[in-house]
Amino acid sequence: MTTIRLHNTKTRTKEVFAPIDPDNVRMYVCGPTVYDRAHLGNARPVVVFDVLYRLLREVYGADHVTYVRNFTDVDDKINARAKDSGREIGEITAETTQWFLDDMGALGALEPDHMPRATAYIPQMIAMIETLIEGGHAYEAEGHVLFSVDSWREGYGKLSGRSVDDMIAGARVEVAPYKRDPMDFVLWKPSSDDLPGWESPWGRGRPGWHIECSAMAYELLGESFDIHGGGNDLMFPHHENEIAQSCCAHPEGDFARVWMHNEMLQVEGKKMSKSLGNFFTVHDLLEQGVPGEVIRFVFLSTHYRKPMDWTEAKAREAEAVLRKWRALTAGIEPAASAAPAVIAALADDLNAAGAIAELHRLASEGDAAVLLASARMLGLLTTELGAWAETGSLDLSTYEARLAAAREAAIASKDFAEVDRLKAGYVAAGLEVRMSKAGVELVPGPGFDADKLEAV
Ligand SMILES: Nc1ncnc2c1ncn2[C@@H]1O[C@H](COP(=O)(O)OP(=O)(O)OP(=O)(O)O)[C@@H](O)[C@H]1O
Ligand SMILES: [Zn+2]
Question: Does the annotation list 30 as a binding residue?
Answer without folding.
Answer: yes
